[in-house]
Model the fold of this input.
Amino acid sequence: MKIAVIGAGSTYTPELIKGFMEISKDVNIDEVVLHDIEKSSEKLQILYEFTQKLVKGGFKIKKTFEIIEAVQGADYVIFQFRVGGLLARQNDERIPLSHGLIGQETTGIGGFACALRTFPVVRKYVEIVDKYSKATIINFTNPSGHVTEFVLNYLGFDRFIGLCNIPINLLKMISQIIGCKMEDIFLKYYGLNHLTFLEKVYVKDQDITEKLMQNMKLHLANIPSQEFPEWVLDALRLYPNAYLRYYLSEKTMLEKLKKEGIRAEKVLSIESKLLELYKKIDQIPLELSQRGGSMYSTAAAYLIRDLSLSSGTMHIVNTKNNGAVNNLPDDYVLEIPCLVKAGRVFPVTLGRADEFAVGLTHTIKMYERLTIQAFLEKSKQKAIKAMLLHPLGPGIEDAQQLLEEILKSNRDFIDLG
Done:
């Protein structure tokens, strides 16, 4: 098996390699190819040398700046690149904040800019993967669900699975609270990436939802009470993704972001320290936990393993709804539980989604599609419509100026004519 990692200059890469090492006892991995752009050559070299020390003569690790060489003949390709790097993420967070809006890398206007910057590179890479391999692409590139919507519904490439580390961490936390194995848990869990809702929890043949909700409340996600008070959960009767705080506690979260500063700047500092550590040691440092992304490597590696073995196991991924949630359209890309079989993912029947979740899902899905259309049509008008539709977006007072600032800061990446 050949696996290509696109964006391998990321400091996350050692965790990913560790995940591949864990599954190598179940599936035969011949080589892992690390790819990044030449601008990231120093980082890629550091990660290449460090991962060589990690595998200690196991499967082969190669590196290349040539995307065709990386993906040619690959069985799986992982997208984990960030177009524009952390400097672009800084702008995604800073520019909205300057207009009194939430500055966040995957949602709101920050996620809007990130998506427009990412679509052309994703399209280019997907076309290359399709031409030179029969690989399945597993996508972590943000905004992951929005990117998956773009690829499945607008590019028509179906060997593409969006992945996030939040579901696997949720399963892990529930297993620890209940004292059971993760594979014994089934979640009625649905929504969009970073906008999901947990409605029911089953352990083996028991519905433990009420018991679990009373026991864990907010402790599961460590959400401060002022950001998400318990009465909100009692009213919703849903356990929400932590990102819902940006929608329902917008004022509180905006003040928090202004006070704490831009996350991208902190991540830049963490990455610099990690790269220095990778030069000196031969084991994954504890400091990597500061970077975030807990268990993302486990999610990716185990999905590859189970796709390869046609294991029939359950994974929560981003893919087309296809009837899983019967009061949402079949072609919506959702984050939902899927059965892994025959090298594919098959959504399982969940029934109806809660009306509150449906309402937000419709709104954000239409925003996603308008943003995609803005890119494809090079339309500022569609971009403005997308911004005005998003609950965290601007009003008409700021929309035009905000869009121009985004386009100016991303002039090397975004072309809306």
Notes: The domain at 2-162 is CATH 3.40.50.720 (Rossmann fold). The chain has a mean pLDDT of 94.
